Amino acid sequence: MPAAEFALPWKSQETQATMTQPVDDLDLIRRMQAGDDDAVRDLYAQYGQRLYAYALRLTDDPATAEDVTQNTLVTAWRTARTFRAEGRLIAWLLGIVHHTAMKSLRNRTNYLGDVAEETIREDQPSPEEQAQVKDERRWVRQGMQSLSPEHRAVLELIFYQELSLNEVAQVLNIPVGTVKSRLSYARTHLRGVLARTEER
Amino acid sequence: MNHEEQLIRYAAKQLNENERAEFENHLSGCSDCQADLTLWASVSSEINASDSAIAAPVHLADSALEAIHAPSKLTRAFKSTAQLLHMQLLLMHNELWVGSAALMFIFLAMALLVARVEVLHFFVPMIAAGMVTLIYGSEHDPATELTFATPISPWKILLARLTLVSAYNMFLALCATAALLLILPPQTLGELILGWLAPMTFLSALALLLSLWIGTSNALFISYTLWSAQYLALTSISEWFAFLTPWIESYRQFWNDPVLLFILGFALILFALWSVGREQVQWRRSIAL
Lengths: 200, 289
What we know:
The complex is a heterodimer.
Chain A: H1 13-19, H2 25-33, H3 37-59, H4 62-78, H5 89-107, H6 112-122, H7 127-133, H8 136-145, H9 149-159, H10 165-172, H11 176-199
Chain B: H1 3-11, H2 17-28, H3 31-52, H4 60-69, H5 73-91, H6 94-114, H7 117-132, H8 144-149, H9 154-180, H10 189-214, H11 216-229, H12 234-237, H13 245-255, H14 258-288
């Protein structure tokens, strides 16, 4: 397939416009440091959707994702002085979301990722379901769900949050090499899910 | 940079123009990379489609601000403690405060008239012990049912009332002791306070525990008897009691050992706080029957 045919249609123009809207991150941080409540509202208006989406992706639970996002804003307010302008504000915020979500997941007795994985491996779908599984979005979704939160996080940070590999490493507090190995594992795993789906 | 990493960056639209053109040249002749690109395109499409459809709740910024400006745990604990003390103050009999003050005034006047500090040393612990026997339980507490119906633990209620009464008794005793300085030198103030502080603590704790177990009247009788027994001069009644003298002396020593009295007093208070929970369970069982 020629490269020119890859139109990369997965990002709508509207989404890209939202993502690339210029943000005065330093101004937000300065205002939070000065104790301006409106800075938290502006921060949420600017990044809230992305923070909440990431929290939801990690926790698979809207209520927990709300708690995580709210705690992230509180932490950002309280630690605004520690923000270094060396990196992007969104990467710093996503790092807080990740840390808070992982803490929340550790406290959860039922690990959703494992449940999803077992469901995919053991459940035999009906013929109708098998037909549906062939739908591209469905197998991708199932494949994503069967990945651990750590692997899902890497994909989410790269493809939705548009972070570089270095920024992903910073958010997850892991070496860049580990980010790459997680990507490699995710690719192998998703290929496996796709192959099993095609066999049915 | 290897092709796998470039492929990811290409799919995530993170390559610059030159890198992109270079990679597309490679891509056109590499079936493995094309297959992987299809995979990552599907993944990216799914992630973006599902994440873009997510609507973040609008209230989270305001909720976060509420959490940011919420009072600290220490402030909340201080406020709830003050509220509990105030509530218990309203529930307790007013006669307790007036009665104790009146008794303290009478015995202070007596001590001043006879110029004997022992009068105050004898009666201060008794007033305090008498007062604590009246702070909890159905016998003298009109709000027992209300108390048991509240979500506040009974031991917290008892501790709140004990704190109020003990602070009040301490205040009265300190005022009376200060008044004694009219007939005594100021440097004896510390000695005067130590004379009643430890016995008051132990006798009050004992009376409180007994009142919870066997009622106010019995508690008063036993604790007052034990307290008064140290002042018995049995040999003046008859020489037959001479053999008891060493025992009486040891008993007096016990009441004059402040460290021991404080330790035992606090232990009895802890025991009383623990046992009050059991009392509530028994009360609920009796209601159920």
